[in-house]
Task: inverse folding
């Protein structure tokens, strides 16, 4: 019997849970940011649903979510100090200066800050800055994966509608 080369999936499944969480989270982060690639500014801002949800707004909201879960929850700093809106709904509001490039850059920076914030933490370590009370970092990762997966689905549908395919 000859051995087969390991696939990337094989490599991930034989890693500790933290590595798996990091890989999946980064895949979803990339997919959401990439939903803006190849679009015009008008397309990225196009509203196709009654809510404030647009493709550009989804990525801006994801920046907010990163800061809520990996800054506020870990550092216990208030949202006003972090410089983010008070509510998730407000995080979808686009300013005149929001562009594809600026929103993607802010998101990359927030994701980088998130990675640094958890670098020394273990999955069972408690974070204390969430309104629900102390939560294990594992809960934060699972919440983020769920939220980003949901928003990636929204982005897929909106992008398909915008591009007409």
Result:
């Amino acid at each position: 019997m000859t051995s087969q080369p390991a696939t990337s999936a094989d490599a991930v499944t034989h890693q500790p849970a933290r590595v798996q969480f990091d890989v999946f989270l980064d895949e979803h982060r990339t997919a959401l940011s990439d939903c803006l690639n190849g679009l015009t500014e008008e397309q990225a801002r196009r509203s196709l649903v009654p809510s404030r949800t647009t493709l550009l707004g989804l990525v801006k909201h994801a920046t907010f979510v990163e800061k809520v879960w990996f800054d506020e929850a870990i550092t216990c700093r208030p949202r006003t100090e972090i410089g983010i809106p008070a509510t998730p709904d407000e995080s979808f509001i686009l300013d005149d200066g929001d562009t594809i490039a600026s929103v993607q850059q802010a998101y990359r920076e927030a994701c980088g800050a998130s990675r640094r914030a958890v670098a020394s933490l273990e999955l069972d370590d408690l974070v204390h800055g969430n309104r629900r009370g102390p939560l294990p970092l594992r809960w934060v990762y699972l919440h983020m994966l769920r939220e980003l997966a949901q928003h990636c689905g929204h982005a897929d549908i909106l992008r398909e509608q915008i591009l007409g395919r």
